[in-house]
Design brief:
Largest sheet: 5 strands, parallel
Shape: globular
Number of domains: 3
Oligomer: single chain
Mean pLDDT: 85
Number of strands: 14
Helix content: 25-40%
């Protein structure tokens, strides 16, 4: 593997009003062929979850477990929950008021979602400090213009009324009674799903609009890719499950393609801006439009999950680019597990993109840089599309294609660098760590 060039930290600039390169308040970056120093500000972590409940009430413990599982993953799938890796999102659980003021607790992250489980024990033993903190928290959330969020779940209707009576500000918070989360057995999972979805909405709100005007930002829509020959019943069941959850939206080609539209272009646009759920039934791989949707998802680098619904014992090697897509099986018909994995994957994508956006704000990336950001190591097809979408090289406008660590392995690294050099000369292909290590070096 070709090693990236070593960092050149001995940057010397004329002292004609430029800051001292040794000043830690500035970050050195390269704009074209010229090193520049940008003001360096703290990079805020993208997301934090604050969960408040009484651990003495056993009724709330399954909800805490489901929320922790949603963000920190687990080795084994269980019940309605899918397995997965730790998303790396900070989650803190409190039974009393957090030690810092509400505004400070929320604003030390780009976005904070506060979840309050309201039971009798919390109401009886919460104390004035907790109610003051929650009132300040809600006031700050309400005035944050969508930066932060708050979910309050009373376990009985009268508990919600008593919660609102604790402080005047809390009376204006619309609570979500636990009964609205469905049957008792699925309520913890439904709250975990809601938390994942709300976090996606918060992160998407902090991203720049990069596509055409009117194009959804943040892959918040669900696109169900299926073969009508044998996947229609499963697709309709999943669509019904989604529609029964009021805060989820589905893109479904049978309903959402307007008459008179170019349906092929609308399908491609839908794939390119959505979270894709691929229902891989026996004939899925052989259907032309399923193949197109899989390849579009690969080229546009959209988040996707694969539902392996095949029943045969043996299958030939796949010819479609499924390698980077997490897979779930539902032999028990558990569609909630599909949604759980899908929202986790969508959140993982958004988390990295929001981290890059925050790094730009903090001066670790040049504000004028033209970025193409992947939330996974891109395929050659995705990399080619990214290169072709970049503007021609211009003085003072660095072009960077960024993907998460670790870097490509041997062979893939050289091929990716050669592709970028051929189709976007002067652009840099890097991960956050290699970009930091090569500050001041050439492309």
């Amino acid at each position: 593997m070709v090693e990236p060039p070593k960092a050149d930290f001995a940057i010397r600039l004329p002292r004609n009003g430029w800051p001292d390169p040794a000043d830690g308040r500035y970050t050195a970056v390269r704009a074209g062929n010229s090193p520049v120093l940008l003001p360096s500000m703290p990079v805020l972590p993208p997301l934090r979850i604050v969960l408040i409940h009484s651990p003495k009430d056993v009724d709330t413990l399954p909800f805490e477990e489901a929320i922790v599982r949603a963000f920190q993953g687990g080795k084994e799938a269980g019940g309605y929950l899918a397995t997965g890796e730790d998303l790396g999102i900070q989650l803190e659980v409190f039974a009393t008021a957090p030690p810092t003021r509400a505004a400070e607790t929320l604003d030390t992250f780009c976005h904070t979602l506060t979840i309050v489980l309201i039971d009798r024990d919390l109401l009886d033993k919460g104390g004035d400090a907790l109610w003051d903190w929650l009132a300040d928290c809600w006031t700050h959330v309400d005035g944050s213009n969508g930066r932060h969020g708050m979910i309050a779940v009373p376990f009985e209707e009268r508990l919600g009324e008593q919660f609102g009576a604790k402080r005047a500000a809390l009376a204006t918070l619309q609570v979500r009674p636990v009964q609205e989360l469905g049957e008792r057995a699925v309520r913890p999972t439904m709250l975990a799903l809601l938390a994942l979805h709300e976090c996606r909405v918060l992160l998407a709100g902090g991203l720049r609009q990069t596509g055409p005007v009117g194009t959804p930002t943040g892959f918040l829509r669900l696109f169900i890719s299926h073969a009508k020959l044998d996947g229609l019943p499963l697709a309709q069941a999943l669509r019904h499950q989604i529609q029964s959850i009021g805060w989820l939206r589905a893109f479904y080609d049978a309903d959402d393609l307007p008459p008179g539209a170019n349906w092929q272009r609308e399908l491609e646009r839908g794939v390119g801006s959505s979270l894709i759920v691929m229902l891989r039934t026996e004939v899925y791989d052989s259907r032309l439009w399923c193949q197109k949707e899989v390849r579009w998802a690969d080229e546009y680098a959209t988040p996707a999950v694969l539902v392996d619904a095949r029943t045969a014992l043996n299958h030939p090697a796949a010819s479609l680019p499924f390698d980077r897509i997490p897979t779930v099986r539902i032999p028990d018909g558990n569609l909630m597990r599909v949604l759980f994995l899908a929202l986790r994957e969508g959140l993982r994508f958004l988390y990295f993109q929001r981290l890059v956006e925050e790094s730009r704000r903090a001066g670790q990336l040049p504000a004028a840089a033209e970025l193409r950001v992947f939330s996974f190591p891109p395929s050659m097809a995705a990399l080619l599309r990214a290169c072709r979408s970049l503007s021609p090289a211009a003085a003072g406008v660095p072009r960077i294609i960024l993907y998460p660590d670790p870097p490509f392995g041997a062979g893939a690294y050289e091929a990716a660098q050669a592709l970028v050099a051929a189709y976007a000369p002067g652009a840099r292909l890097a991960t956050p760590n290699t970009l930091a290590a090569t500050t001041g070096a050439g492309p």
